[in-house]
Structures are given as structure tokens and as C-alpha cells.
């Protein structure tokens, strides 16, 4: 056999093997929606270093705590926080049962579809809308209203259920971390009772691993003697900015070794995580993809990323560029 | 062979088998420190019912949440709460660095060993002692002081480290629950930052599964720019009485199916747990054993068990009688 023929024959006979090996490698890629590059490499390298027993960066499984911001980090947050979209829809749903609402300017603005008046009501107006829709009911009734809304509401731009606007690459990252012994937590400025309703189904994160902002809750015996928990119109804890490391301490009681955020509200959490001893991973998702999602940072009202972007650059934290680093953004539709 | 001889021969040849079977059964008893009886049977029956797939009482693993009070339920609480024993020792340890303390009556009473004066200072005095020893330091420094105390302090009656006054039967129960897919939580009136230091080693319960009372914590940048969390002299949350179901909702976000307490401070948690749908288990540890531990209930200043004992009887909750139901109380000394 001529050497070239032989090489060709070998190549042909090896082809199925080669193909199988490529397939195996594709299957074993834990992050298929992440483009190959420095960012993906940094993630995989960190995880394998802390999980390698006997290695200098080894971290015992119990200490492999990973924390993720939610809005803008695990799911989208434009054109307004999804929890606020829920609140606006609830105002419209509940208005017939609450005729007295028509005398309250921010609520009237929502019912009239008068966005200018709503914007003019500012933070106090937003707080009034959140209180009206998030308090004065049992925790069970509130959870049921969130579940009902998620089942029917659609995002104005994408026409999808909000739960289908989670980020596919982050779902893969959460799974990759868990399969390497990490315990994954949400640490969100959003309301903890809102997120817990759907986080387990959407992210595989159970209620007890969700840290968030909360209102006061009161325990009482209902008329029929059954005990119940009632949501009260009083903010109890704001899990944003310096509240994030405080919330981590309060709920988790252990400093994370990995933190992932997307805005200045995550900066303290990233600092707290990065400043611990041993191997650390701090990452920021930079929204750079107006075509597939949105592009915003320093000037945005929602998810402003300014100081944290500077600090990431100064401290060498990982900055994920959505457009460059993500092969896909949302899960493909079934 | 004579029939009797044959029977004897058979008996002799069967003896090793029989012995092996007894040994296997002893090894497979998950609760060897619990006497056989109605209480042990109720526990084993409940756990196997909720864990049996396809059974009418089946509960998915994610919902198998078990909550335990700590003081008097998982470890002893006499002659005074161990956390308060820590605080008194800390007053003595820290007094030389805090000469101004001598002007504060409750602290002076501790330093003088004047228990009558300390008692006279009442709840305000106790709060002053707790504040002096539990605030004004970083969370890391506090955890180190607790660990240091545990390593050296000995219980006045038993001469053991306090961590060795955990209840052996409860350690077995926690393990039994976990091996049946339960997630075990502490829900304690004690300080969460105190318990988290040693709960993982003592009970196999990680920090993120400890719910407790807490003081405010503030995030700040230290002089050297390193971020730190500082404990402030302000009570933030009291995880006792109606605070227990509130704490469960806040930290766990899911109603437990099993709750275990020992005092009236656990009553609301037991009610909240027992009132949920499906199979439920509510249990109270009744301290009835003055010889091996202590006997106290309706009249006790610490761990008073009065209303909850009546309600347990009315509702058919499980009441564990320490003297009758526990083969041993504390772990055997190494």
C-alpha cells in the first residue's frame, strides 16, 4: 500500500473514532452556551482548582458557597424589574376589589396607564404600589398570586413567560458549580417571597437558598384557629448594596468563595467575597448585547454598572461580555 | 441421633447465624440510644411513611424539612443557658481591657460573683451583659471568642466541655432523618452567631441551616481598606415564640413537616408545623430525669414547659419522656 493511501485509509478508519471523541468532548463540555475564551477558561480553571483534593487551592465542599445576584445576573431586568411588572399587573387585577385605590395618585396613574404621572410619583409612589400588592395577605396567598401571574404574563418585548427569560449560560454555570460540590445561593435586592416561588423550578435553587429583601411578617391564629403568617406593610430588610454582605452573613453565615453580579448594588457583595483568604472568584455580567438582550451600564436607571465596572478592572475581576462570551442568551423555546 | 440431641446440635450450629442476625439488627437500628416503645415506633413509622415512594404519605425530599429547637432539645440548658455561661465568662475575661465596666452594676455583680445582685438586675441586666460581650467586634472576632471559650470551659456539674452535653439520642435522630432525605435545621431562641460556630461539628448542621436570634450587623471598610462585618449593640430579631414560625418563613421559606422542641417558646413553631397538610410530626422533649440530667417543666425559669405540654396532650403530639425513652443521654466519653 502506498504510504499516502495508507494514511488515507487510516484516516478513514479513524474517522468514526475521531467523531466519537469530538462528540464526547462536546457532551462533556459543561458550559456549551459559553464561547471558548478567557472568561470560560477562568471559570473552569477556578472550579477545578478549588475542587481538586490535595491541590493548593482546594476548598472543602461545605465551604464552596457561590452567590448570585438575580435581576440582570440570572434573568433579565429590562425594561423594568420583573417584580415591578408583577406589581403593576396586580394593581390592575386587584383594583375592582379595592375601589378606595382610585384616590391614591400612583395607583391611579397605573390604572390610567399614565406612565408620566407614575414616574413623577418617584420612589414613594413605587413603594406605595409595592406595599399595596405585597402586603395585607398571608404568605401562602401571596405565593399563589405570584405563581398565577407567572403562568399568564408575557414579557412585552419577547412575548415569553418571564421565567423563560433566565440566562441559559447561567443555568449551565449553576449546574456546573453544583456538580462540583458547590452550594448555589441567590442574593438579590428583589423580594425573597417573590423569588422563592419560582427559583427552584427555574434555577434548581430551593427556597432556603434564596436571600432577598423582605417585609415584616406576623404570626397569628386565624378566625378558625389555624395559624398563619401575614405579610405586613413594613420593609424589614433591604438586601442591596451593603445589605448584601449583611444578608449573606445573616442567612448563610459563611463567606462565599464565588460571587456573580451585574450592577453597583452587587459591589459590596463582590468585595466581601473577593477579600476572603484562599482562591476567590468575583464576576460581573456586562450587558453589551442590544440585539439579543439589552446594552446598558453606567447611565442605566435599572442595573446601573459604574463603580463596580471600574473596580472589576482595577482588581482583575472577571467581566463577562454578554455579546462576546455567550453563544446563546435565553433557553431555546420548546 | 436422638431428636433432642439433634435439636441441640441444630441449635449449636445455628447459633453463629442467630448471633450474626442479632448483630445485624443491632447495627441496623438507627436509634440505638432510644428505648424500644411507642415513641421510637412513632418516629420510625413517620419517617418511613413520608420516605416511601408511592405511599399515601410520601413527601418529596425537597420538602422534608425538619426543625429542632437547640437549648434543652439538642443540648442541655441547665443550670443556665450555655450562651449566658459564655457571656459571664467573657465578662471576666474582657474586664481587664474594659476598666469602665466596673461602674456598670450588672457587670460589677458578675465580677464580684454576686449572683443575688445579678439576679436583681433582671432582664435589663442580662441584656447589658449580652451586649457588652456580643457587640462592638467583627463577626470573625466573635466567632473566634466562642471557639476559644468552648475549647476551655467546662460545665459545672458534669465537668465536660459544653459541646459534649449534646443529646446522644438526638444526634442519632438527626442522622436518621438525613439518611432518609430530610434537611435538618436548628430554629433557636439563642444567638445565631453563637450556635453557628460549633453546630456543624456537634450536629452535622451547617451554618446556613441555623436560624436564631440576631443582633444588627454593619458592613464597613476597615482602616486598611478590607471589608468587614461589625456586630452592633442592637437586637434585630428574636427567634422565640411567634418569632419561630416567622424565622422559619424568613430563612427557610418552606413549612417544616417535623418540629421538635422542649418549651413554651417552641409552641408556635410546633403549631405552625403541625397545621400543614399531609403527614406531620410534632414532638416535645420532657425533662424528667433528675439523675442523668434534670427534671423540670411547668415551674422552671429556664425552658418552662407548661402550655405546650397541655397542647401536646390535647393534639396528640409526641412527648418524649427522657427517663423512660432514652437509653443514654449524653455521648459516652472517648
TrEMBL record, chains A, B:
InterPro entries: HAD-like_SerB, HAD-like_sf, HAD_sf
Pfam families assigned: HAD
Cross-referenced PANTHER family: PHOSPHOSERINE PHOSPHATASE (PTHR43344)
Keyword Ubl conjugation attached: no
Keywords: Signal
Signal sequence coordinates: 1-26
Keyword Glycoprotein set for record: no
Stated name of the protein: Phosphoserine phosphatase
Amino acid at each position: 500500500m502506498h504510504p499516502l493511501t495508507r494514511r488515507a485509509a487510516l484516516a478513514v478508519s479513524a474517522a468514526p473514532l475521531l467523531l466519537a471523541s469530538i462528540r464526547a468532548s462536546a457532551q462533556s463540555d459543561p458550559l456549551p452556551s459559553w464561547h471558548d475564551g478567557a472568561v470560560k477558561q477562568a471559570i473552569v480553571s477556578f472550579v477545578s482548582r478549588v475542587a481538586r483534593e490535595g491541590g493548593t487551592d482546594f476548598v472543602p465542599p461545605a465551604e464552596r458557597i457561590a452567590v448570585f445576584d438575580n435581576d440582570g445576573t440570572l434573568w433579565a431586568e429590562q425594561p423594568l424589574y420583573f417584580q415591578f411588572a408583577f406589581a403593576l399587573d396586580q394593581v390592575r387585577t386587584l383594583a375592582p376589589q379595592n375601589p378606595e385605590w382610585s384616590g391614591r395618585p400612583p395607583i391611579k396613574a397605573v390604572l390610567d396607564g399614565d406612565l408620566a404621572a407614575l414616574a413623577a410619583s418617584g420612589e414613594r409612589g413605587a413603594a406605595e404600589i409595592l406595599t399595596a400588592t405585597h402586603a395585607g395577605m398571608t404568605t401562602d396567598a401571596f405565593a399563589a398570586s405570584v405563581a398565577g401571574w407567572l403562568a399568564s404574563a408575557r414579557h412585552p418585548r419577547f412575548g415569553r413567560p418571564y421565567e423563560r427569560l433566565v440566562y441559559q449560560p447561567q443555568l449551565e454555570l449553576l449546574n456546573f458549580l453544583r456538580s462540583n460540590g458547590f452550594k448555589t445561593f441567590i442574593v438579590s435586592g428583589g423580594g425573597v417571597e417573590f423569588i422563592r416561588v419560582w427559583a427552584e423550578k427555574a434555577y434548581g435553587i430551593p427556597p432556603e437558598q434564596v436571600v432577598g429583601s423582605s417585609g415584616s411578617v406576623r404570626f397569628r391564629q386565624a378566625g378558625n384557629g389555624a395559624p398563619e403568617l401575614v405579610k405586613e406593610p413594613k420593609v424589614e430588610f433591604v438586601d442591596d448594596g451593603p445589605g448584601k454582605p449583611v444578608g449573606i452573613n445573616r442567612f448563610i453565615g459563611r463567606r462565599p468563595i464565588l460571587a456573580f453580579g451585574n450592577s453597583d448594588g452587587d459591589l459590596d457583595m463582590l468585595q466581601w467575597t473577593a477579600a476572603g483568604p484562599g482562591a476567590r472568584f468575583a464576576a460581573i455580567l456586562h450587558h453589551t448585547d442590544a440585539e439579543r438582550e439589552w446594552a446598558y451600564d453606567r447611565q442605566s436607571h435599572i442595573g446601573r454598572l459604574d463603580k463596580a465596572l471600574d473596580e472589576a478592572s482595577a482588581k482583575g475581576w472577571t467581566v463577562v461580555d454578554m455579546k462576546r462570551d455567550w453563544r446563546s442568551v435565553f433557553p431555546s423555546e420548546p
